Amino acid sequence: MSRIRIFLLPLSILLLSFQAVQAQDTVVPKLIWAVNKVDLGTVFEEQGKQLAEFEFTHTQDSLFFVEDVWTDCGCTTAEFTKDTLEVGEKGILKVSFDPTSASGYFNRMVIVKGNLQNTQDTLFVEGIAIPYPQDPEKAFPVRKEYVGFRLNKLNMGEVLTNEPKVKMLEFYNFGEETLYKDSLKYNTPEFIQISQVQEIVRSQERGLLQVSYDGKLKGDLGFFEDYLAVSWDSISVIPMPVLADVFEYFPPISKDELHLVPQLSLGTQEIDLKKISANSVQTESVTITNKGQEKLEIRKIQGNCDCLTIEIPKVELLPGESVDLKITFDPKGRKGIDQRNIYLFSNDPVNPVQLFLLKSRVE
């Protein structure tokens, strides 16, 4: 008898636990939010308070209403639907953010409490707040026509080929004419697109140009300096250099796949030529080996100087195959410590870009 009791007790506990797990799996949230985070984007101080709207749907049979809303900062205030909602009805929560309270990236938390038990949800409002400059002349020193920019170049940074990279280019209207969004004209390569964020930028106001750089459309890898040109009806063409480092995107791979993919291995990462004469052309070689189990493809080899000549007999290596990369360096016109960078782009998903250094002291 005692043996049966010992067996039945754990079994009953397991059954209860199983039922509890099933109950947890079938729990339906009391409120379903269309989104739980709103990105306000880049907000200028002079634009005033910004509004973020959150829509929710009540899912329970019981009547529901919002009891209270808390925010983690006095810079955010909330207005919400105060009506009692039946199942399936929708409500709106409006959160107002004051950009004068922040500088740079912000992330504000909003907690919503309802009348039903365990109804307490968390929402977020984020963006980038830029304060108004005390001295626009100093803040926007690069003047082209009547438009001021903070820098004379737009650096996009790293751009991957899986999706376009977007950056905001801030400008200041020093002129007397209003700059309208629909009057903006631009001339760019097909992989660069531009649009004005604000509908209008009045005299002595700031504006934003949204610049999108599509690495896939670029169709090349490495460092590039391209050019864009913008104009408005009242302003002639304004040129602007655009810098970008374009890299091929590879999706993450599992540890089990590491030994299967192509693997580019350099015989050495660096060659030091020591002391050399400025009139003596130097030639070196580096061995490249594919240590993976799939074909290795050398996409591109890029040096950081016209003084380099790089040759490779083939750009596709079978598993286990090696090839010598020939590097010729002409130090003419150079003096002192010198370092040349050579970048190898390949379909090695773990190390798609590898750097090789050629050092010397030119006398």
UniProtKB/TrEMBL annotation:
Residues 1-23 form the signal peptide. The keyword Signal applies. The keyword Cytoplasm does not apply. It comes from Algoriphagus machipongonensis. Keywords: Signal. It holds the Pfam family DUF1573. This is DUF1573 domain-containing protein.
